[in-house]
Amino acid sequence: TTTRAAPARRAAPTSAMRDLIVIALLLPSCALSMTIATDGLIRTSRHAAHVRMAEDMPSIIIGGGRIGSALAEIGCDGDVLVRRGEPIPEEPASGPIYVCTRNNVLADVIAATAAERREDLVFMQNGMLGDFLAEQGLAGVTQVLLYLAVSKLGEKPTDGITDTNPEGLTSATGKWAAAFKARLEKGALTCHVRDGDDYTRRMLEKHVWICAFMAVGARRGCSVGDVESQHKDELRRLVEELVAAGEKELGVTLEAGVFERLAAYGRSVAHFPTAVKEFEWRNGWFYKLSEAALAAGDADPLPIHTAVLKELGVVS
C-alpha cells in the first residue's frame, strides 16, 4: 500500500503580508498583480504592471493650446496642465508627459524635465524629430503622428478619418503609445500603435503631406482644400518627388495609393490655411537632402521642391 502525503498547508499571511495586500487593493486597476504562493511568499506580476501602460492615467500636459486643452478635456482626474514656461511639477511622479508645444521650444522643455522623467515625454509635433531627439539622448522616446483638427480652443477635436482610411490615421510609437491610444478612445478618437518601419512609413507619409500641401498652398495663396481640388496635378508631382527622396533616405517603401490617401486627408481639413513655416523641422528636412546631393556633385533629387522654396523666398 502507499500512503498519500498530506497536502501542504498554505502559510497564513503575516501582518506585513496583509498590509501589502491592502496596499495592492488601493492601487489603480492593473497596476500590480499579486498572489500568495504555497511557501507564503508574495509574488507580483511584471506583466500586469506593463499592461497598465495601456490604460489612460494621470498625466502631465505641457502646453495649454488647442491640442493640450483637448487632451486635458478627455483625460482623467489627476492630470496637470502646464502652460508654456511654467515649471514641470513633480506630481504625478510617473506616467506620460504630453508635450503639446511648438517645435521651437522643445529643447527648453527637455531641459526643464528631470533627467529621470525624460523617457516619459511624448512628442506630437509635426516634422521630422528623429535627429533632434537622438541628439538629446531620446531616440526611443514616445512619438505621435497626430491627425486631429481642433478649429479653436475649447472645440471638440475632429478625428483624422477619411474616405480612404475610415479606421483613422493617428499613430503612436514608444513606451506610452498604448496609454495615448486609450486616452483618445475615451474621446471617441482613433489611434494605432505601431513600431519600426511600420511607424517610419507613416511618419514619412504625414511629413510629405504637410510639406507638399503647405508649399503648393503658399505658392498659390489658397487653402488646403483648394490645393487638393484646384491644383491636384501640381500637388501630385511634388508628392511623388518628396516620396521618392524620403523613401531613399529612410530605407522604406510606402504602400500603394499614397497620393489618394494624402488627397483624402486634405479634403477632410479643407478649411486649413497654408504656409511654409517651422522650416527646420518640415520642408528643411527635404532641402537638406538637396543640399547634400549638390555638395557631392550630384543632381538635385528634389528640383520641384527647391524651385518652390526659391520662388517663395524661403531659400536663396
Write the H/E string, N to C: HEEHEHEEHEHEEEEHEHHHHHH
Question: How many distinct beta strands?
Answer: 11
Silhouette: globular
Bin the helical content: 40-55%
Search tags:
globular; alpha/beta; 316 residues; 11 strands; two-stranded antiparallel ribbon; disordered N terminus
Descriptive report:
This protein has 316 residues and is of the alpha/beta class. It is built from 12 helices and 11 strands. The chain has a 7-stranded mixed sheet with strand order 4-3-5-6-7-10-11, with helices on both faces. Strands 1-2 form a two-stranded antiparallel sheet. α7 packs across α10, α7 crosses α12 and α8 (224-230) packs across α10 (258-268). The radius of gyration is 24 Å and the shape is globular.
Draw up the topology in text.
Elements: H1 15-26, E1 33-36, E2 42-45, H2 46-51, E3 60-62, H3 66-73, E4 80-82, E5 97-99, H4 106-112, E6 121-123, H5 130-135, E7 142-145, E8 148-149, E9 158-159, E10 171-173, H6 177-186, E11 192-193, H7 196-220, H8 224-230, H9 232-250, H10 258-268, H11 283-295, H12 303-311
Parallel strand pairs: 3-4, 3-5, 5-6, 6-7, 10-11
Antiparallel strand pairs: 1-2, 7-10, 8-9
Helix pairs in contact: 7-8, 7-9, 7-10, 7-12, 8-10
